[in-house]
Design brief:
The structure is a single chain. The chain starts with a strand and ends with a helix. With about 150 residues, the chain is an alpha+beta fold. The strands form two sheets. It has a four-stranded antiparallel sheet, covered by helices on one side. Strands 5-6-7 form a three-stranded antiparallel sheet. It contains five helices and seven strands. It is about 50% helix and about 25% strand.
Length: about 150
């Protein structure tokens, strides 16, 4: 029985909020830079636009582009997950960490700060510390309980 911890709703909603703010601010700047006559008159007194006017004319393309990049990143991370399988912990489908290679788990900050760290040994003999946070993945309590049960 595999326990799955998908990408966190907190992270997804945060990116959606950032995207909405960037698009909204871009629309506001576009309106001020192209259609708001009082703003145009105030920031182009002699017919030549000042820095604020130039910003409001050029920034919307960059702001909407940044929102699009965040959207692409959101599409990339939407399928990431931590899976606790019967004999290994799989992180994002890339790192396959056998339970017998995990040496210690530090869960002292899990209840307060929402993350735990564990140390494991690679086949090369190198020790690596990994930190997994509830800001990145949901259902980590079940993953942590399963890890502790497998290592004990």
């Amino acid at each position: 029985m595999a326990i799955v911890a998908p990408v966190s709703k907190y992270k997804i909603k945060t990116f959606l909020i950032y995207m909405a703010v960037l698009v909204g601010f871009g629309a506001y700047c576009y309106y001020d830079g192209h259609y708001n006559q009082s703003f145009i008159e105030k920031h182009s007194p002699d017919g030549k636009p000042d820095g604020t006017m130039v910003f409001n004319q050029k920034a919307p393309a960059y702001l909407v582009g940044a929102a699009a990049l965040l959207g692409v990143y959101l599409l990339v991370i939407r399928n990431k997950k931590v899976v606790a399988e019967d004999n290994a912990l799989v992180i994002d489908g890339k790192a396959n960490i056998a339970y017998d290679s995990i040496q210690k788990i530090d869960k002292t900050d899990f209840d307060k700060k929402g993350y735990f760290t564990f140390t494991y040994k690679t086949p090369d003999g190198k020790e690596i510390d990994r930190k997994i946070s509830d800001r990145n993945y949901d259902n980590l309590k079940a993953i942590l309980d399963h890890l502790v049960a497998k290592i004990s």
